[in-house]
Amino acid sequence: GYQRVLEENRKLYNQVQDLKGNIRVYCRVRPFKPGQSNTLSSVDHMDERTITILTHSKNGKEARKAFTFNKVFGPSVTQAEVFSDMQPLVRSVLDGYNVCIFAYGQTGSGKTHTMTGPKELTEEGLGVNYRALSDLFHISNQRKETISYDISVQMLEIYNEQVRDLLSADGGNKRLEIRNSSHNGINVPDANLVPVSLTSDVINLMNIGHKNRSVCSTALNDRSSRSHSCLTVHVQGRDLTSGNILRGSMHLVDLAGSERVDKSEVVGNRLKEAQHINKSLSALGDVISSLASRSSHVPYRNSKLTQLLQDSLGGQAKTLMFVHIAPEYEALGETISTLKFAERVATVELGAAKVNKDSGEVKELKEQIASLKAALARKE
Ligand code: ADP
Ligand code: MG
């Protein structure tokens, strides 16, 4: 009886997760810069799920367009609040899931703020990367009587369709290959894989990574906005009773700026960079939207980014896309194209009808779980 209740409980939990879908899209709106508070905003309205943008129609009249997300985070939402919402997703890595978390948006919209934090890092400012790892350390420690976990990280950069190791001692000058058949979930075997067990380990590594990344940039030529950076966390857990091994991974990706560059204005390297960024962001969009629409062919091969993440996009893997919005009215053009990208990657999950139907079912399943839990508690 007891075992059956447990099993039933787990099955229902998985069903709830399935109903919620494996692809989620969140929108985060950056606050105005200090001293900018009276600036005209392109954001007309926000609630927990919807953002309404002020646009102008062809005849010059004001018009509004609404976009729906799994969640909308307004400008006053803190780093801790953002993280607490995604904590269950992060923790699922310890149960053997593969997770991808992306930060998408134009340069200056807050991608690095979400993933890493502000330049002057404070405790409250810590971004998802630090919080996720601290949380994994915390939970793995809590489980140490039953499961022994090894956690290690890689830090890669994709620039102009080339992969570099940001944790390499030579500053990451060597180009690395992505292996098609990954070994233990590690598909860039030549990149450093560094065991970590303390938040301070992570902070040290991230500092090395950031230094290596900026070696190749000048003040005028900020490379970090034109390359993707990916912090990958590999988790291996050994069940101390059965000896079974489980593996999970989490990719935390700060994407290159999504802004369109005017082709008439850039030439040479700058144009090449822009083309590579365009290609890889649209390849990512294509992969996620074909996963969302359960298409039989998923075009992973079209960019280094999607090749790198192939094992962690689709199947049982979970994807969270954070799209970032700059509130200034001048950014409207980019804001609309960002929201359109978000709409495209979430075709299935975000349809209003589907959401309503699901939420009823999810509610019902949640109620069943609650009553099973109560039954379980009575047995104990
Ligand atoms: P991106 O990485 O997309 O180019 P940044 O993360 O560097 O953008 O953000 C641009 C600036 O705005 C930075 O100074 C950053 O600290 C600030 N910023 C971004 N998002 C927030 C936020 N949610 N709250 C406070 N400041 C933010
Ligand atoms: Mg950035």
Automatic annotation (TrEMBL):
Keywords: ATP-binding, Microtubule, Motor protein, Nucleotide-binding. Transmembrane segments: none annotated. ATP binds at G105, Q106, T107, G108, S109, G110, K111, T112. It comes from the Eukaryota. Residues 22-348 form the Kinesin motor domain. Belongs to the TRAFAC class myosin-kinesin ATPase superfamily. Kinesin family. KIN-14 subfamily. This is Kinesin-like protein. It comes from Gossypium hirsutum. The chain holds residues 391 to 770 of 884 of the full protein.
